[in-house]
Amino acid sequence: MLVSKENANPTEESGMRYLKQLLERAEKVSLQETIYLTEREPEDNYVAALPNGLKKLWILMEITEQRSEEINEEGLRRFGGISDDMKDSFMDEIKQLHQKYLLAQSEYELLKKCFWTSVRHEFPDLADASMVGIRKGWQIVKVNVAKKAKRDIENFLGKILKELRDSDETEDDSDS
After folding, report:
1. Which of 81, 68, 159, 72 is nearest to 111 (CA)?
2. What is the mean pLDDT of residues 126-141?
């Protein structure tokens, strides 16, 4: 854990500081942020529209995941190509960047858990749903897992059959 002047001597109140800051950040999120959401699928059953507070939590979760990925990419860019002999001279920087990445990743995981738990609390009928999604237009959907698996398998097999047909046609053309 990072020790700063603020948390060097934790008090009862400081133990909640991080969660309070996280909620404040969620409140400040603009609903105008561009977020990519997929279209509804045939196996999606519409439940409700996502409330604004949960939209903000989703957006913050997406921003945090992106930040985590950017930190990882920075590490790969800066240190991915250096030899093991050189790593010792950059060890402090590598450790700091790694710690920054781990904190961003754990924050993303926390936001993800908070988001999906909040969705299930807001919509108790989803408590036993094995798969829930958010689709374009901020639609909450309950996914029929069996239908989705069947469609995914059919799509996969269809691609394989197409590749086999295409390769047979290519072989027939080369024989002529």
Report:
1. 68
2. 94
Asked whether the beta carbons of 119 and 125 are under 8 A apart, the reply is: no
Residue 44 lies in a domain: no
Record the tokens describing residue 2, joined without a space. 């990072």
Q: How confident is the model at residue 3 (pLDDT cuts 50, 70, 90)?
A: very low
Is 110 inside a domain boundary?
Answer: yes
Per-position b or e across 60-89, b if 16+ CB within 10 A of its CB: bbbbbbebbeebbeebeeebeeeeeeeeee
Which residues form the domain of 29?
A: 16-37+51-128
CA distance 26 to 60: 6
Instruction: Report the distance separating Cα 12 and Cα 70, nearest Å.
Output: 34
